[in-house]
Amino acid sequence: MTELLQKIAKMVELGKIDRNMPFPPELKGKDGASELTLKALEIGIDPQDILNNGLTAGMNAIGEKFSKGEAFIPNMLIAAKAMHAAMEHIRPYFSEGDIPSHGTMILGTVRGDLHDIGKNLVKMIMTGGGWNVIDLGTDVENKEFVNAVNDHKGAIVGMSALLTTTMLNMELVVKELHRIRPETMIFIGGAPVSQSFSDEIGADGYFRDPYSLVRYLNKDKLRDSQ
Ligand code: B1M
């Protein structure tokens, strides 16, 4: 079981999307992230385990190599494609349809930031947890968050950032929302963000993963006050 998850992580790291991919040449014709994920589901591995210990582990591995100068942007891009392909298989397990809606979340990756995998996971888990998610996408202008809140009264806001430079945009959105709609709850996440940063900019909380966010929201008084 662990071996299969390690294999999935490796295929993501290598950017081997599926069997048809000719790269890397030594793995030509062999299963890629897509087929291995299906296999893992077939033998009953928990989708959350596949996500955390297979797919995300692979993304972390390529990220570390990039930090050390051992991998480059095309490597990160192709790894992201492999992860996207595999995520399509596990998505249904996180998006059971008939859970009543707890509320609406406006979600996006902040201005200047194109990373969307974490944000897409938040969307998937929140939807599965009974929230209606309005996905503004990536590189979201600060005013787009504000406009969306004006259009969807009572919605909460979720912002994701993966760069130490772009996370600073979160503060601008928080400030503007506090000015015009102080009742709006704002949650943040992403690798460079922390609870102390959340406190510093006046957001309502930092969550290191979408599961703890949805657990908090669905348990918390917030739901009752909406
Ligand atoms: Co980029 N990149 N990247 N990248 N990239 C990182 C983030 C980096 C850490 C790599 C490194 O140096 N080791 C580094 C940032 C350094 C820094 O600022 N400290 C970096 C860099 C430098 C860059 C560029 C600047 C490179 C360049 O051009 N020179 C460039 C910037 C482009 C831009 O955005 N303007 C760039 C580009 C890219 C690609 C486009 C090639 C690609 C993104 C493809 C895509 O997203 N479609 C890419 C990738 C893939 C990565 C890494 C390898 C993987 C990111 C990822 O998807 N992780 C990344 C290294 C790493 O993270 N180890 C790296 C998996 C994902 C599931 O995790 O998004 O953290 P994450 O989400 C988690 C949690 O954080 C949390 O839940 C998720 C699941 O647990 N979470 C939330 C996220 N948002 C949340 C919101 C919440 C709650 C939880 O509430 C609202």
Please indicate the percent range of residues in DSSP E strands (runs of 2 or more): 5-15%
CATH class of the largest domain: Alpha Beta
| Strand arrangement across the biggest beta sheet | 2-1-3-4-5
- The whole-number mean of residue pLDDT values reads 93
Bound molecules: CO-5-methoxybenzimidazolylcobamide
Q: Mind telling me the CATH superfamily name of the largest domain? A: Cobalamin-binding domain
CATH architecture of the largest domain: 3-Layer(aba) Sandwich
Number of helices: 10
Q: Total strand count, please?
A: 5
Which sheet architecture does the biggest sheet show? 5 strands, parallel
Commentary on this structure:
There is one protein chain. This protein is an alpha/beta fold and 226 residues long. The protein folds into 2 domains: 2-93, Methionine synthase domain (Methyltransferase, Methionine Synthase (B12-binding Domains), Chain A, domain 1); 103-225, 3-Layer(aba) Sandwich (Rossmann fold). It is 54% helix and 10% strand. The chain contains 10 helices and 5 strands; from the N terminus they run ααααβαβαβαβαβαα. It has a 5-stranded parallel beta sheet with strand order 2-1-3-4-5, sandwiched between helices. Bound molecules: CO-5-methoxybenzimidazolylcobamide (B1M).
List the helices and strands and how they pair.
Layout: H1 2-14, H2 33-42, H3 47-67, H4 73-94, E1 103-109, H5 117-128, E2 131-135, H6 142-151, E3 156-160, H7 168-180, E4 186-189, H8 195-201, E5 205-206, H9 210-219, H10 221-225
Parallel strand pairs: 1-2, 1-3, 3-4, 4-5
